[in-house]
Amino acid sequence: MTGTERLDQVIFFDIDNCLYPLDLGLVALTTARIHALALTAGLSTETVTETCETYYRDYGLTVRGLMKHHGVKPSDFNEKVDGSLPLETLIKPDPELRRILKAVKIRRWAFTNAGIDHARRVLRCLGIEDLFEGITFCDYAEIDFPCKPERAAYERAMLEAGVTDPRMCYFVDDSAKNVEVAIELGWTAVEVSQKASTMLNISRIHELPQVLPQLFDQTLFST
Q1: C-beta separation of 134 from 112 below 8 A
Q2: Whole-angstrom distance, CA of residue 50 vs CA of residue 89
Q3: pLDDT(1) > 60
Q4: What is the pTM of this model?
Q5: Smallest Cα–Cα separation from 166: which of 8, 32, 50, 27?
Q6: What domains are there in the chain, each with its CATH number?
């Protein structure tokens, strides 16, 4: 942050497919690993895709359904899905993103549906881990852990970031549903998507200063 930061305001950033491009292919790699894990947990090849999609829709994350109904352990998911992804090969440091984040005048907080180890790996690969005050993540070991778009996840993010007024919260995410819930809660939210459906939207994270110019120190951003 700069010398003119607003300590009463926080901008929450989603991580996966938001801070890096969707076309890196991590969605497909993650899905394949989740399906493989589901098969070892007893799902059949005929039903694994539909069942995993149902769990994602009903529980916010497929892993919640696999843990709830098939005995998948947090350690299984961490080892065979998150921990097995070749993040260091696919995600490279992003100097432009780092410059943009450093120009933000308010507090920066990561808010992800991933586990903490995965979240830190991604931020480290991008070269921006040090720019976030904290990370609100999904603790897979917690029974019925909340995740976006559940309101409890947003309330946890506010609590952990130490902000009580939703009008002081800004949010950037690639999921339209996640953005819609944030708006319902009174946050100012931006959707990062090539097919955005919400009021404030950008096609890539680097366009953020264009839609929220009031949050940036333009003198730093332009240098």
Answers
A1: no
A2: 30
A3: no
A4: 0.92
A5: 8
A6: 6-20+91-221 (3.40.50.1000), 26-84 (1.10.150.450)
